[in-house]
Protein backbone atom coordinates (compact mmCIF):
# COMPACT_ATOMS: atom_id res chain seq x y z
CA UNK A 1 0.00 0.00 0.00
CA UNK A 2 1.36 3.40 -0.94
CA UNK A 3 2.23 5.63 1.99
CA UNK A 4 0.05 8.74 2.12
CA UNK A 5 1.97 11.96 1.45
CA UNK A 6 2.08 14.39 4.38
CA UNK A 7 3.81 17.38 2.83
CA UNK A 8 2.93 20.66 4.49
CA UNK A 9 2.33 23.37 1.89
CA UNK A 10 4.21 26.61 2.61
CA UNK A 11 2.42 29.61 1.03
CA UNK A 12 5.80 30.88 -0.20
CA UNK A 13 6.52 27.62 -2.03
CA UNK A 14 5.10 27.01 -5.48
CA UNK A 15 3.45 24.14 -7.28
CA UNK A 16 4.83 20.61 -7.36
CA UNK A 17 7.89 20.56 -9.61
CA UNK A 18 8.85 16.92 -9.11
CA UNK A 19 6.67 14.00 -8.05
CA UNK A 20 8.02 10.52 -7.41
CA UNK A 21 5.24 7.93 -7.54
CA UNK A 22 5.59 4.37 -6.22
CA UNK A 23 9.13 3.95 -7.54
CA UNK A 24 10.73 0.54 -7.23
CA UNK A 25 14.28 -0.30 -8.29
CA UNK A 26 16.09 -3.61 -8.06
CA UNK A 27 19.52 -4.97 -8.96
CA UNK A 28 19.18 -8.69 -9.40
CA UNK A 29 17.59 -9.90 -6.18
CA UNK A 30 18.47 -6.76 -4.23
CA UNK A 31 15.69 -4.19 -3.94
CA UNK A 32 17.24 -0.71 -3.77
CA UNK A 33 13.95 1.22 -3.68
CA UNK A 34 10.60 -0.12 -2.54
CA UNK A 35 7.41 1.76 -3.46
CA UNK A 36 8.77 5.24 -2.69
CA UNK A 37 6.63 8.33 -3.25
CA UNK A 38 7.17 12.00 -2.43
CA UNK A 39 6.81 15.47 -3.95
CA UNK A 40 9.21 18.40 -4.28
CA UNK A 41 7.65 21.84 -4.64
CA UNK A 42 9.13 24.61 -6.72
CA UNK A 43 11.38 26.88 -4.67
CA UNK A 44 12.03 24.62 -1.69
CA UNK A 45 15.06 22.82 -0.33
CA UNK A 46 14.11 19.15 -0.06
CA UNK A 47 16.39 16.65 1.66
CA UNK A 48 16.60 12.88 1.30
CA UNK A 49 18.20 11.28 4.34
CA UNK A 50 18.71 7.82 5.77
CA UNK A 51 21.38 5.39 6.98
CA UNK A 52 24.05 4.06 4.62
CA UNK A 53 22.51 1.79 1.99
CA UNK A 54 19.06 3.31 2.38
CA UNK A 55 18.70 3.99 -1.36
CA UNK A 56 19.31 7.75 -1.37
CA UNK A 57 21.75 7.96 -4.29
CA UNK A 58 19.70 5.39 -6.19
CA UNK A 59 16.75 7.75 -5.91
CA UNK A 60 18.73 10.68 -7.32
CA UNK A 61 19.91 8.41 -10.12
CA UNK A 62 16.29 7.61 -10.97
CA UNK A 63 15.35 11.30 -10.99
CA UNK A 64 18.10 12.30 -13.43
CA UNK A 65 17.71 9.22 -15.62
CA UNK A 66 20.89 7.31 -14.77
CA UNK A 67 18.74 4.48 -13.42
CA UNK A 68 15.31 3.45 -14.73
CA UNK A 69 12.73 2.35 -12.14
CA UNK A 70 11.37 -1.17 -12.40
CA UNK A 71 7.92 0.23 -11.66
CA UNK A 72 6.54 3.65 -10.80
CA UNK A 73 6.98 7.05 -12.39
CA UNK A 74 8.94 10.28 -12.16
CA UNK A 75 6.72 13.27 -12.95
CA UNK A 76 8.72 16.42 -13.70
CA UNK A 77 6.99 19.70 -14.56
CA UNK A 78 3.77 17.76 -15.11
CA UNK A 79 5.29 15.28 -17.57
CA UNK A 80 5.15 11.63 -16.51
CA UNK A 81 8.06 9.42 -17.47
CA UNK A 82 9.37 6.01 -16.57
CA UNK A 83 12.55 6.19 -18.67
CA UNK A 84 14.73 9.13 -19.63
CA UNK A 85 18.42 9.58 -20.42
CA UNK A 86 20.62 11.87 -18.25
CA UNK A 87 21.34 14.27 -21.12
CA UNK A 88 17.60 14.65 -21.72
CA UNK A 89 17.02 15.29 -18.04
CA UNK A 90 19.77 17.92 -18.12
CA UNK A 91 18.26 19.62 -21.17
CA UNK A 92 14.93 19.78 -19.29
CA UNK A 93 16.49 21.65 -16.37
CA UNK A 94 17.79 18.96 -13.98
CA UNK A 95 21.44 19.38 -12.93
CA UNK A 96 23.44 17.05 -10.69
CA UNK A 97 26.54 16.97 -8.53
CA UNK A 98 28.07 13.76 -7.21
CA UNK A 99 29.30 12.40 -3.90
CA UNK A 100 32.71 11.82 -5.48
CA UNK A 101 33.91 14.90 -7.33
CA UNK A 102 33.52 14.47 -11.09
CA UNK A 103 35.57 17.34 -12.52
CA UNK A 104 38.17 17.57 -15.28
CA UNK A 105 41.14 17.71 -12.94
CA UNK A 106 43.64 18.90 -15.57
CA UNK A 107 41.53 21.88 -16.65
CA UNK A 108 41.13 25.30 -15.08
CA UNK A 109 38.25 26.37 -12.86
CA UNK A 110 36.81 28.53 -15.64
CA UNK A 111 37.13 25.75 -18.22
CA UNK A 112 35.36 23.28 -15.93
CA UNK A 113 32.47 25.63 -15.31
CA UNK A 114 32.27 26.39 -19.05
CA UNK A 115 31.59 22.70 -19.72
CA UNK A 116 28.30 23.19 -17.92
CA UNK A 117 27.19 25.44 -20.80
CA UNK A 118 27.47 22.65 -23.38
CA UNK A 119 23.74 21.99 -23.58
CA UNK A 120 23.08 25.71 -24.07
CA UNK A 121 25.12 25.84 -27.29
CA UNK A 122 23.21 26.23 -30.57
CA UNK A 123 26.04 26.92 -33.00
CA UNK A 124 27.00 24.25 -35.53
CA UNK A 125 30.21 22.25 -35.75
CA UNK A 126 31.38 24.38 -38.71
CA UNK A 127 30.63 27.61 -36.87
CA UNK A 128 32.64 26.41 -33.90
CA UNK A 129 35.51 25.13 -36.02
CA UNK A 130 35.99 28.52 -37.67
CA UNK A 131 34.72 30.55 -34.71
CA UNK A 132 32.10 32.23 -36.88
CA UNK A 133 29.46 34.76 -35.82
CA UNK A 134 27.05 32.71 -33.75
CA UNK A 135 29.83 30.65 -32.18
CA UNK A 136 31.70 33.82 -31.26
CA UNK A 137 28.61 35.38 -29.70
CA UNK A 138 27.83 32.20 -27.77
CA UNK A 139 31.38 32.00 -26.46
CA UNK A 140 31.10 35.57 -25.18
CA UNK A 141 27.71 34.93 -23.55
CA UNK A 142 28.80 31.62 -22.01
CA UNK A 143 31.95 33.15 -20.59
CA UNK A 144 29.99 36.07 -19.16
CA UNK A 145 27.59 33.64 -17.44
CA UNK A 146 30.45 31.58 -16.02
CA UNK A 147 32.32 34.64 -14.77
CA UNK A 148 29.16 35.67 -12.92
CA UNK A 149 28.98 32.20 -11.31
CA UNK A 150 32.64 32.42 -10.31
CA UNK A 151 31.95 35.74 -8.63
CA UNK A 152 28.80 34.37 -6.99
CA UNK A 153 30.75 31.45 -5.50
CA UNK A 154 33.63 33.74 -4.46
CA UNK A 155 36.35 31.86 -6.36
CA UNK A 156 37.58 34.73 -8.56
CA UNK A 157 41.19 34.31 -7.46
CA UNK A 158 41.14 30.67 -8.59
CA UNK A 159 39.50 31.12 -12.00
CA UNK A 160 42.70 30.23 -13.90
CA UNK A 161 43.91 27.60 -11.41
CA UNK A 162 44.05 23.93 -12.39
CA UNK A 163 41.31 22.17 -10.44
CA UNK A 164 43.57 19.38 -9.14
CA UNK A 165 45.70 21.97 -7.28
CA UNK A 166 42.75 23.28 -5.26
CA UNK A 167 41.70 22.18 -1.76
CA UNK A 168 38.85 19.69 -1.60
CA UNK A 169 36.27 22.21 -0.44
CA UNK A 170 37.01 24.54 -3.35
CA UNK A 171 36.76 21.65 -5.81
CA UNK A 172 33.26 20.93 -4.48
CA UNK A 173 32.42 24.58 -5.03
CA UNK A 174 33.65 24.37 -8.62
CA UNK A 175 31.45 21.34 -9.18
CA UNK A 176 28.50 23.33 -7.85
CA UNK A 177 29.44 26.12 -10.27
CA UNK A 178 29.47 23.75 -13.22
CA UNK A 179 25.98 22.53 -12.30
CA UNK A 180 24.76 26.14 -12.02
CA UNK A 181 26.16 26.92 -15.46
CA UNK A 182 23.44 24.70 -16.92
CA UNK A 183 20.84 27.09 -15.44
CA UNK A 184 18.87 24.32 -13.72
CA UNK A 185 15.36 24.54 -12.36
CA UNK A 186 16.02 21.49 -10.17
CA UNK A 187 19.46 20.94 -8.66
CA UNK A 188 20.32 17.48 -7.27
CA UNK A 189 23.15 17.54 -4.72
CA UNK A 190 24.59 14.20 -3.61
CA UNK A 191 26.35 14.76 -0.27
CA UNK A 192 27.66 18.25 -1.14
CA UNK A 193 29.50 18.50 2.20
CA UNK A 194 31.01 15.01 2.42
CA UNK A 195 34.64 15.15 3.55
CA UNK A 196 34.58 18.85 4.40
CA UNK A 197 35.81 20.51 7.58
CA UNK A 198 33.50 22.76 9.61
CA UNK A 199 34.48 25.99 7.84
CA UNK A 200 34.01 24.43 4.39
CA UNK A 201 30.59 23.08 5.44
CA UNK A 202 29.51 26.52 6.62
CA UNK A 203 30.56 28.05 3.31
CA UNK A 204 28.78 25.40 1.25
CA UNK A 205 25.62 25.72 3.34
CA UNK A 206 25.61 29.46 2.71
CA UNK A 207 26.01 28.98 -1.03
CA UNK A 208 23.23 26.39 -1.15
CA UNK A 209 20.91 28.84 0.58
CA UNK A 210 21.97 31.62 -1.81
CA UNK A 211 21.38 29.40 -4.86
CA UNK A 212 17.89 28.65 -3.57
CA UNK A 213 16.92 32.14 -2.42
CA UNK A 214 18.74 34.43 -4.83
CA UNK A 215 18.60 32.30 -7.98
CA UNK A 216 15.28 30.61 -7.25
CA UNK A 217 16.62 27.10 -7.88
CA UNK A 218 14.72 24.20 -6.32
CA UNK A 219 17.16 21.92 -4.52
CA UNK A 220 16.95 18.22 -3.69
CA UNK A 221 19.91 17.09 -1.62
CA UNK A 222 21.35 14.09 0.17
CA UNK A 223 23.37 14.86 3.27
CA UNK A 224 24.52 12.91 6.34
CA UNK A 225 25.18 15.93 8.55
CA UNK A 226 21.86 16.19 10.40
CA UNK A 227 22.64 19.66 11.71
CA UNK A 228 22.98 20.90 8.14
CA UNK A 229 19.85 19.05 7.00
CA UNK A 230 17.71 20.45 9.80
CA UNK A 231 18.97 23.99 9.25
CA UNK A 232 18.58 24.06 5.46
CA UNK A 233 15.55 21.92 4.66
CA UNK A 234 11.95 22.92 4.08
CA UNK A 235 10.88 19.28 3.76
CA UNK A 236 12.61 15.96 4.41
CA UNK A 237 11.95 12.39 3.33
CA UNK A 238 13.64 9.53 5.17
CA UNK A 239 14.57 6.23 3.52
CA UNK A 240 15.67 3.01 5.18
CA UNK A 241 16.43 -0.25 3.36
CA UNK A 242 14.90 1.24 0.21
CA UNK A 243 11.57 2.20 1.75
CA UNK A 244 10.15 5.49 2.98
CA UNK A 245 9.82 5.60 6.77
CA UNK A 246 9.18 9.28 7.35
CA UNK A 247 8.34 12.55 5.65
CA UNK A 248 7.67 16.10 6.83
CA UNK A 249 9.26 19.26 8.16
CA UNK A 250 12.51 19.17 10.17
CA UNK A 251 10.52 19.50 13.40
CA UNK A 252 8.30 16.58 12.42
CA UNK A 253 11.26 14.41 11.44
CA UNK A 254 13.06 15.05 14.74
CA UNK A 255 10.27 13.39 16.71
CA UNK A 256 9.31 10.67 14.23
CA UNK A 257 9.81 7.37 16.13
CA UNK A 258 10.56 5.38 12.96
CA UNK A 259 13.34 7.80 12.05
CA UNK A 260 14.78 7.72 15.58
CA UNK A 261 14.79 3.93 15.46
CA UNK A 262 16.50 3.81 12.04
CA UNK A 263 19.27 6.18 13.12
CA UNK A 264 19.75 5.22 16.75
CA UNK A 265 18.38 1.69 16.93
CA UNK A 266 16.00 2.76 19.67
CA UNK A 267 12.37 1.65 19.39
CA UNK A 268 9.55 3.75 20.72
CA UNK A 269 9.22 3.19 24.45
CA UNK A 270 12.78 1.89 24.87
CA UNK A 271 15.63 3.71 26.54
CA UNK A 272 18.95 4.30 24.80
Note down, in words, how this protein is organized.
Strands 6-7-8-3-9-10 form a six-stranded mixed sheet, sandwiched between helices. The protein is α/β, with parallel strands linked by helices. It has helices at residues 56-63, 86-91, 109-114, 125-129, 133-152, 168-181, 198-215, 226-232, 250-254, 257-264; strands at 16-27, 30-41, 45-49, 71-76, 79-81, 94-96, 186-190, 218-222, 235-240, 243-248. Mean pLDDT is 86; it is low at 1-11 and 268-272. The protein contains ten helices and ten strands. Helix 5 packs across helix 6. The chain has two domains: 1-93 and 185-266, 3-Layer(aba) Sandwich (Rossmann fold); 106-183, no CATH class. The longest helix is centred in the middle third of the chain and has 20 residues, at 133-152. Strand 4 (71-76) and strand 5 (79-81) form a beta hairpin.
- Level of helix content? 25-40%
CATH class bucket of the largest domain: Alpha Beta
Q: Would you tell me the structural class of the helices and strands?
A: alpha/beta
Kindly report the oligomeric state of this protein: single chain
What value does the Rg take, in angstroms? 20 Å
CATH-defined fold name of the largest domain: Rossmann fold
- Indicate how many domains the architecture comprises: 2
Measured by DSSP, the beta-strand proportion falls in 15-25%
Mean pLDDT across residues: 86
Large-scale geometry: globular
